[in-house]
Amino acid sequence: MTEPGGAPLTGFRVAVTSARRSEELATLLRRRGAAVTCAAAIAMVPLPDDDELRRHTEALIASAPDIVIATTGIGLRGWMAAADGWGLAADLTEALSGARIVSRGPKATGALRAAGLPEEWSPDSESSREVLQYLLEGGISGLRIAVQLHGATDDWDPFPEFIDELRAAGADVVPIRVYRWHPAPHGGAFDQLVLDIGDRKFDAVSFTAAPAVASVLMRAAELGVEADVLSALRSEVHAMCVGPVTARPLVRLGVPTSSPERMRLGALARHITDELPILQSRMVQVAGHTLEIRGTCVLVDGVVKELSPASMATVRALATRPGAVVSRVDLLRALPGSGSDTHAVETAVLRLRTALGDRQIVSTVVKRGYRLAVDDPGAA
User: Fold this and answer.
1) For the chain, which terminal residue's Cβ has fewer other Cβ atoms within 10 angstroms, N or C?
2) pLDDT at 338 > cutoff 80
3) How many domains are there within the chain?
4) What is the pLDDT of residue 1?
5) What is the CATH classification number for the domain harbouring 170?
6) Which of 280, 304, 322 is the last residue of a domain?
7) Which segments constitute the OmpR/PhoB-type domain (predicted)?
8) Is 283 helix (H, G, I), strand (E, B) or coil?
């Protein structure tokens, strides 16, 4: 089958790990041609009836904070909704209204203003590190600070250093954990997604929350494929994160990440669209054609050529060193489920030539093997 390859992500495979708005991100990527697999890495569990949240809320009403830090819009709205359910919303708003209020970003700012709590300051970068620096420069020793936190899993807290540094500077910190993240259930679609990352069946994995990263890594360890997953993410499977906070757990493990300038879902989709073809495609001039190799297909002069797994494996092996001869034995090793009969290589090459539409693209080198017929072997 052939079709114009105008969609920029045609032939690329992207895994979506989001718990919220996953279909929105998947739709944006599919419209750009990607093959998308969705499996939520985490589930958000609201805590309107949580004893710790209520206890801290009542403590802040009884002894108002000097500073309030809002980190997420959904978290702040959840906190106010929980207080309303306890009949404490008015008291909480009054207690917070006398404090200096710092917002980490636009969504938190919007939620603050909707609650009648205008912010003193918010960084353009949406960086928690910049929030911390702003407070430390002004001095916080002896001050009572309420910090509305990102979600956490039972085994992982995204902001331990943030709170530790506030306390080290002499502040009395009241953590407000409005919601927590629980890992996805075992034995389902998420397990398969993690295994597929380790098997390098995706070209990119998108992350929109740091707990999702933690969940993938923890589940990989539980499934015994942690080394495979980390190796894949450090090489052929690209980690695309919505922002630096999300990327931090991967960066600490030496995994390359990339993020859009703005921490928004639409910006992430555009970032993947712009970056993935640069990171994960190979373009070669062969036999008078432009050959572009993507995740699951090949484009010849901009026209998509759908290939079988064996044909894709063959063309990838030939493109490792364009123009160089690849022996039948090496091509046999590259084939899925490779056996010992080199006749399978001849069959794979024949089918590849047919699928590409020009038999001259793959040349036979007698008694040696096969090569891509690059137009300028010296440049290759």
Assistant:
1) N
2) no
3) 3
4) 42
5) 3.40.50.10090
6) 280
7) 281-374
8) strand
